Amino acid sequence: MFNLFKKKKEENKRGDQYLSLKVREVVKETPDTVTIYFEQPEPFLEYRPGQYLTVILELGGKEVRRSYSLCTSPYVDPHPGITIKRVEGGLVSNYLNDQIRPGKTIEIMKPLGHFTTDFHSKNKNHFVMIAGGSGITPIMGISKSILINEPDSKVTLIYCSRSEDQIIFRNQLEKLQDEYKERFKVFHNLSKPSLNWEGMKGRLDQVKIDEILQNNLYPGTAKTKYFVCGPNGLMDIALEALKAKGISDEDIFKESFYTDIEAKEETLKAEGKLSPELTREIEVNVNGESFHFEVPAGMTILEAGLDRDIDMPYSCQSGLCTACRGKLVSGKVDMIEDAGLSQSEIAEGYILCCSSKPASSDIKIIIE
Ligand code: FES
User: Fold this and answer.
1) FAD-binding FR-type domain: from which residue to which, for each copy (predicted)?
2) Could you give the strand order of the β-sheet that contains 223-230, starting from the edge strand earlier in sequence?
3) Do 88 and 133 have their domain in common?
């Protein structure tokens, strides 16, 4: 009774975008990767394939947040699941790999993210997916959703892993290939395979990508869309290869899990692209409530807001997940990392508070 009361109070304090989910099952995908499946809450968790959840934990007396992509499809999987690969020395990924058991409750922020697509049973598209390591996670949810919702669309997946035992979802992918023989093809590329491996090996490069795509043309498809997710090196190779083929940006969807925001800031500074760092008074409106506060020189807008205990949404704190997205309605900011935003969002004035510093005195941001 006491716990129920406490839980309700916490949920109210956090607001609508927060939720507690009960762990239903933990599946070991590879030696260093698990998928955590949750019981469906009431009402059911709404999400789009490819989105992510932000996990909020209290570790070592501090609140920590990390985003993990959903590997499931709301169209086929009864229970939502996120996949977590261990990061060496990573506080949260190791905790989730080692300490989470069925029955445990985890606080999350509701699904976010734009790495997804619209599905329609009449579509006749070809989807080319290029994934590396745990970058397969959102691509798994999107691919399953295409196969079930679009009977005339095809999916070609190029999936890079280190070795055979590092292939996440290997069995699931085999089953899907059996089930959708004419519409789903998977090409594994292993950087360090065993001697028995007969598939592609070494680094993925433009030649391999070209060869696969040339041999997998689907004449009946109206449009080809490209989804890329994985480590930066792989993403750079894939994006360059697609660019060299003349594929337009609007047909390429990408999601990055990694960035070095400090190095980026140094580069921008050296190029003279950042405004002088000054303490500025700004206004931030969070879900209809206005706050006026100072952002000390050198701090991001999110850091200053959290220091004042303002409940600003956030997750990755590195410009990738968009949980901290707000609309700049007046003033100017220096946004160090904008990888999470699309070009049209930037043109509409959206900024990421975790990677933005004030560059003028009349700043007003609306977060909803
Ligand atoms: S918190 Fe993830 S982009 Fe700002």
Assistant:
1) 16-118
2) 200-201, 184-190, 154-161, 125-132, 223-230, 252-256
3) no
The reply to whether 47 and 137 lie within a common domain is no
Atom of ligand 1 nearest to the CA of 317: 1
Tell how far the Cα of 315 is from the centroid of ligand 1, in angstroms: 5
Q: Tell me the CA–centroid distance for residue 210 and ligand 1, in Å.
A: 34
pTM of the model: 0.84
Is pLDDT at 8 greater than 80 in this prediction? no
The number of the ligand 1 atom at minimal distance from the alpha carbon of 355 is 4
Phi then psi for residue 136, to 5 deg, are -70, -20
Mean pLDDT of 169-190: 96
Range(s) of the domain holding residue 290: 272-367
Nearest residue to 17 (alpha-carbon basis) of 247, 249, 258, 324 = 324
Tokens of 211: 């060869």
* 302 CA to centre of ligand 1 in angstroms: 9
Question: Which ligand 1 atom minimizes the distance to the CA of 316?
Answer: 2
Residue 120: inside a domain: no
Whether 216 maps to a domain, the answer reads yes
Give residue ranges with CB within 6 A of ligand 1. Answer: 314-317, 319-324, 340, 352, 354
Please list the residues that pair with 280 across neighbouring strands: 295
Question: What is the rounded average pLDDT of the residues 316-343?
Answer: 90
Please report which confidence band the pLDDT of residue 14 belongs to, taking 50, 70 and 90 as the band edges: low
Spacing, Cα 91 to ligand 1 middle (Å): 18
- Residue 1 belongs to some domain of the structure: no
> Can you tell me the distance from the alpha carbon of 57 to that of 66, in angstroms, rounded to the nearest whole number?
9
Is the previous residue joined to 43 through a cis bond, with omega within 30 degrees of 0?
yes
Judge if 220 and 335 occupy the same domain.
Answer: no
Torsion of CA 72, 74, 76, 82, to 10 degrees: 10
Q: How far is CA 311 from CA 14, 66, 135, 149, 303, in A?
A: 8, 17, 30, 38, 11
> Within this chain, do residues 46 and 161 fall inside the same structural domain, yes or no?
no
Helix (H, G, I), strand (E, B) or coil at 53: strand
Q: 29 C-alpha vs ligand 1 centroid, how far in Å?
A: 27
Q: Which atom of ligand 1 is nearest to the CA of 320?
A: 3
Count up the domains in the chain and report the number: 3
Residues 276 and 362 in one domain: yes
